[in-house]
Amino acid sequence: MICALNENKVSVVKKALKILGKKNFVFIMHNGSFPALKGENTGFGTINSSAGRKFIDYAAGLFDAIQMGPAGKTKSSDSSPYCGTIFSNNPLFIDLKELTTARWGKILSEKTFNDIVENNPNKDKNKTSYSYIVKRQAVALSEAYENFLNLNDKTLHKEFETYKQENDSWLDKDSLYEALSIEHDNDYWYSWKNETDKNLFNPKTYEQKIEYGKRIDEISKKYAKEIDEYKFIQFVLSKQNAATKKYADSKGIKMIADRQVAFSDRDTWAYQSLFLEGWCLGCPPDYFSKDGQAWGFPVIDPDKMYNEDGSLGEAGILMKNLYKKMFRENPGGVRIDHIVGLIDPWVYKSGKKPMPNQGAGRLYSSPEHPELSKYAIVGVEDLDETLTADNEKRVKTLSEDQIRKYGRLIEKIVIAAAEEEGLTKDAIVCEDLGTLTNPVAAVMKEYSLLGMRLTQFTVPTEPEDPYRCKNITAHCWAMVGTHDNQPVNIWAKNQIHTHTGYLHVKNLVEDLFAEVEDKDSLIVEMTNDAAFLKETKLVELFACQAENIQMFFTDYFDMNETYNTPGTSGDKNWSLRLPDNFEQMQTINLPLILKKAIIARGSEFAKVNKNIIEELDAIS
Q1: Are 134 and 92 in contact (CB under 8 A)?
Q2: Strand locations in 435-475, DSSP E?
Q3: What are phi and psi of 209, to 5 degrees?
Q4: Nearest-angstrom CA–CA distance, 273 and 49
Q5: Is the separation of the CB atoms in 542 and 25 below 8 Å?
Q6: What is the count of structural domains for the chain?
């Protein structure tokens, strides 16, 4: 166990990480999972709170960055952060407690705040109360807005006006959607009865453009106050986010954002003219689903990504603005979820399953497809036609020009956005787990992008599996598990007394205990001891050559609860929080793990680093 506030221990650990070649050690926790101080648990966590700053203090020195989940506004009926908006941030991340202080002119009453805390159904549990806080937060923020209007603070009011002007390109549309949600008593635009309202930013004729413009003016006047309130909430959140990042910077902690592949309902409505009609983004049959995953997310129209001269089209500009905002607000970088979706996306027809036999295919890799062929980068001659459309090896040949075309979005939008905001492409963390098609692998290599190696995903029967310790290269991010995986504690328990577990143990012993003579006894011990297996799995993470390490909060704090189970929904999912008493919780024994990782590198390496091994031994 290590206390992150103990400077002596942290100093030794950082020295060991450097010896093992680790450049970055990053903690992963989504915003809602942050703990609360006593008497301040509203039902949802936020790094903007006093408890959030307390955790930053805890993490400072040991961790280089905190990687958050997607920051977008989520639906009232779905807590998944991976369905949030691309520009608007989640109002649930506002620290209500701060609005009761003089810093904000006490625009929220302590009575309202205390009532929310007192009635939180999970106030004594490390769980969010999503349905509860969505409603209560909205009411509280309305009260805060009303009081703000009467607040005699010219500086704050001027800041608000400036904020609205600087962000009008996305803020006007998002706030108008909020008004229409009130108009139709529903924030799901597909169920609105008024066809004009569904298509306000998707006119097909000049006449419709005029008509829809009048309707926009009508709604804007009718709900002027509600629209302004929406903008105010985003303003408050922007100020709190900026203050938190400034505080984190002062502690040597950077923030890493998370960009989901999805577009929210709000974004789909606002930019529907830029999407490919009749097609959805999904995932082919894979580890999580034998029938594929029908996400239902819209697909950017390739014809609107770039102009004929190669410059960015309207959709390309939208995407670049999105990434520029994310890099500007998160100097630690951006994790891109499902990088395949940007390079070689799997698409399927609306109303169908995302399976090849129902017309699904790769948007840019289907030259034989009757509808998708017009977007194909490769030709039929580049395919292995003995393989089905969902096979990741189907594209067998790629020219340099084809690789560049697959990588256009990465080069012209993502990398360009990072560089324009003063960062390098190493600030891009690519989630490339699972299906990795040949075009995606080629683009990753061409642009030297940092992908991920998830040790839980190791296929023990494959000696060259990329997630196995001996095969993990330096230029990547490595981790035991992500938000979609069981904590390493549960993983280890599930492997005990199983044939698969035996195979995992055998590989671990081969990779980490190469110089041990009696390997059989070690294998027997580890296959029967979940704690030993868990510890060794963590040793593997630090003993591998990866220069960048990430650790999900459930793994670092030795928890036995899963944050997200893919394919499920409801308030119980995405609800796990770090307990409020996190400073007293047992964590993984990092000094011991690092000591064993150094020893696992071999006797010569251990001999050279004898002193640090002794230091680690003293504090483990």
Answers
A1: yes
A2: 451-454
A3: -60, -40
A4: 39
A5: no
A6: 3
Among 200, 228, 256, residue at a domain's last position: 256
- The DSSP output letter for 359 is T
Provide the 8-state DSSP code for 395: B
Check whether residue 471 and residue 575 sit in a common domain.
yes
Query: Half-sphere exposure of residue 465, counting CA atoms within 13 Å on the CB side?
Result: 20
The verdict on 573 and 613 lying in the same domain is: yes
Domain around 331: 271-449
The Cα 532–Cα 511 span in angstroms is 16
- Taken in order 256, 445, 306, 268, the sign of the CA dihedral is negative
Both structure tokens of 280: 């959805």
347, 472: one domain: no
Angle between helices 499-512 and 488-495 (to 10 degrees): 110
CB atoms within 10 A of CB 523: 17
Examine residue 263 and state whether it is found in any structural domain, yes or no: no
Query: 325 and 445 share a domain?
Result: yes
Answer yes or no: is 373 within a domain: yes
> Does residue 275 sit in the same domain as residue 414?
yes
Q: Are 133 and 126 in contact (CB under 8 A)?
A: no
Say whether both 425 and 469 belong to one domain: no
With residue 333 as reference, give the H or E element that holds it: strand 333-336
Task: Retrieve residue 194's tokens.
Answer: 């008024």
Q: Is the dihedral of CA 248, 250, 254, 257 positive or negative?
A: positive
* pLDDT greater than 90 at residue 147: yes
> Does 56 reside within a domain?
no
- Final residue before a domain boundary, out of 256, 279, 310: 256
pTM listed for this prediction: 0.95
Both structure tokens of 218:
């009508």
> How many beta carbons lie within 10 A of that of residue 278, not counting itself?
11
- pLDDT tens-digit profile of 351-361? 999 999 999 99
Band of residue 571 on the pLDDT scale cut at 50, 70, 90: confident
Instruction: List the one residue out of 264, 246, 229, 322 whose CA is nearest residue 47.
Output: 246
What DSSP character marks residue 302? G
CA dist., res. 13 & res. 591, Å (int): 6
Sheet of 24-28, strand order = 428-430, 333-336, 254-259, 65-67, 24-28, 548-552, 476-479, 451-454
Answer yes or no: is 550 within a domain: yes
Distance CA 583, CA 561 (A): 18
pLDDT, tens only, 397-446: 999 999 999 999 999 999 999 999 999 999 999 999 977 999 999 999 99
